[in-house]
Amino acid sequence: MTDFDNTKDLRWLGGCRPRDAEERFHSSYVVDLETGCWLWQGSPRGSNGYGRISVGGKLVPAHRYSWSLHNGPFDQSLMVCHKCDVPLCVNPDHLFLGTATDNMRDCKRKGRTGGGAKTPARGHNNGNSRLLPHEVKQIKALDLPQRRIAKMFGVSQALISKIKRNEMWRHING
User: Fold this and answer.
1) What is the tens place of the pLDDT at every residue in 52-72?
2) Burial level of 2, CB count in 10 A (0-12/13-18/19+)?
3) Are 76 and 65 in contact (CB under 8 A)?
4) Can you tell me the distance from the alpha carbon of 43 to that of 62, in angstroms, rounded to the nearest whole number?
5) Residue 170 φ/ψ, nearest 5 degrees
6) pTM, full prediction
7) Is the peptide bond before 44 cis (omega within 30 degrees of 0)?
């Protein structure tokens, strides 16, 4: 009988020992010095952009593991949300616990709600915008046919209609 028979784990041969989840976790991220984010480099990453780590034979989201590692157990019905909005970040200082409602409020407060996974920038911050805020104020103030206004600003009548109905550029008061 050899010394290795009692472990039945061949990884002990050759001086390698199995690494526990905490050790693998801490070797699987890099620190972004500008943002302070701990960016998950470990494999695998889910299709949703969040890192995952194997713990006890199960794949768990890396940010959830980070929270429990640094803050202790938590109610699994809660979400681990990101203050930094970086799905690959596992820095516990950038994470907070919340309900789905809390997460949506945070999302709305940061202006990330709306169309799809990534909401486009509003107004002139959107690269596709053809108008500036002062032009939108003029459009809202003008009492002319929409086609004429559209021609004046080089945009479509449909856009003028949406601006007038406050469907677009509603954050600019006329």
Assistant:
1) 998 888 989 999 999 999 999
2) exposed
3) no
4) 10
5) -70, -15
6) 0.57
7) yes
